[in-house]
Amino acid sequence: MPFAVYVLGLAVFAQGTSEFMLSGLVPGIAADLHVSIPAAGLLTSAFAIGMVIGAPSMTLLARRWPRRRALLAFLCVFVAVHVIGALTTSYALLLATRVVAALANAGFWAVALTTATALAPPAARARATSVVVGGVTVACVAGVPAGALLGEAWSWRAAFWAVALVSLPAIAAIAKAIPEERPSAGGARQELRALADGRLLLTLTVNALFQGATFCTFTYLAPLATNVTGLGSAWVPALLALFGVGSFVGVTLGGRIADRRPAALIAGGMASLTAGWAALALAAAHPAPAVALVFVQGMLAFGTGPALIARVLDQGAGAPTLAGGFATAAFNVGGTIGPWLGGTAIGAGLGYRSPVWVSALLMAGAIALLAGQASFFRARRAEPVMAGR
Prior knowledge:
389 residues, single chain
């Protein structure tokens, strides 16, 4: 695997830390800026919305830029707004920096996905996708807890400074390791027409449902653990880290399997995840199986997810620059609707198990969408034709 692909994973680690770390910093931000907890929580929503909007729009903006220039531009903007966020005393300005950071993050993600697959050998494209997505899993395991510890020890501003500092080595490495070449982009209308392909739209929808299921339960793991499983609050960081460790194991193993048998991995992973969410909902009151399932579900989710993203890039070969943007948008649409649906279920009085059932239902919906698509589950022997287009 080219070194440049791992450099992209490092940058995604810093950006993933920024995306998820606010969950542990909201009280400190609210107190420091003299706003309410819900107002501070809007910083997370602003980032999520910025990611969804930014993925296609930023990709369109940078579609003719050389890849290295695009990646450096997005990452430098990302660092700059974190410095501004760490210095500001204005809530409105901090909110604006979160939106701009999300736009830059979305643009970087989209370009990074297409760059990683372009740099990797044809037989290792799914593994290259896994390396990039793996940056998010490392952020969940190490970056987010570290951000929370910095916020606790000093202030939330220290966490923002840390994200900016961690991004600096990635800027230097990208400047050295990524070739300065322009993507082979056709016209914007031509690429948009290619993205209107029915199979691709189906895969994007499946991606959104899949990620929605993952983030629905992940978002509400803490109340599930303390109110249903009966674990003390001190166990919550360990449980979240366990999910992250499972995710890292899954993304490492899944990338290797996906390059050889992608259809089998996607079919088996989606079926296993559906059964696993249902099993977790049923066994949530019993600590041993609940804890084990948290690890297993993290492994399955991030072991299967990159293969679905790689499928989008394969099916979107006619839109080489925009496919990564729409894959990123689908990922973040899922990351937005999943927690919203889970919160709605809890708000309706269905209890803290309900988000896990929502995850199972979202996965069942994703499988139902694919049930009639026999071509989706063709053997790998049909895929070199697509990869070579």
